[in-house]
Specification:
By secondary structure, this protein is of the alpha/beta class. It has one domain. The protein has eleven helices and 13 strands. The strands form three sheets. It has a seven-stranded mixed sheet with strand order 4-5-2-1-6-11-10. It is globular. The mean pLDDT is 96. Keywords: Acyltransferase, Antibiotic resistance, Transferase. GO terms for molecular function: aminoglycoside 3-N-acetyltransferase activity.
Length: 284
Amino acid sequence: MTDIELLNDIKIKLNEIGVAAGDTVYVASDITGLLYLAKTECDVKIKQRDEFLNKFVNTLQEMVGPEGTLLFPVFSWDFCRGNGFDIRSTKGEVGALNNWILKNREDFIRTKHPMYSFLVWGKYAHRLAAMNNQDAWGDAGPFTFLRDNDGKQLFFDIQAHQGITFGHYVEQCVDVPYRHPKYFFGSYTDKNGVTETRCYSMYVRDLNVMQEISITNQWLIENGVAAGAESHGLTLTYCDLAKAYPLLYNDMKNNNGANTLSFENYELDWSKGKTIPFELGGLA
């Protein structure tokens, strides 16, 4: 099998689960299995890996076309840690493919939020990159845009709970009591190399509450907001975020997060109010 045949097989399956021209697609991925297949089944050498990944990204671009948009997360928490953020070079912490795009693909541009930025390409790329949202998951940012503009999420060989940051966005919309706004001040370097002190916020978890998102691909599929397939052992799941939003919202608000949230030492109780109202961080 050639690498082109492998990517074509994946493309066929992605088409079957709904990926189409004009789609706006947030791609969350683990490419470990894909690279293993490329090496063992297609004889792609290490020195050919960049060429193969270019072909993979190109395949996704061809599928959504010029009227579509791709978003790859390059989330980083260096800004929260006091290490600053440089939009040109700060690496993400959520996937090898995303950092490879940051380093190798000049046709993508980066959105501005220092903790929750995306590399974006396509029809809405400049609109997304122009957003000045201070709040990571607020109404002025990419997550509301995805909800309100028929955004989709592709889980490429991962489970939803590993990559559905959209779930944290829904937590903020629901206003869960164990999360609260935290404001961070830090060094920010823009695309022109200008560095200044800026303030950004995110809806952080009370660190005394042990909690995770627990959404599974199967639950999304069973509830009609996603479709799934396999290609050469790779799990592919395509979720309609606009349809998923009320499903997640209702489960968190009215079902104590039975299918969306997991806790080790906390019971969701809407009557007690916020565990912490807000925080400030990064002040010298």
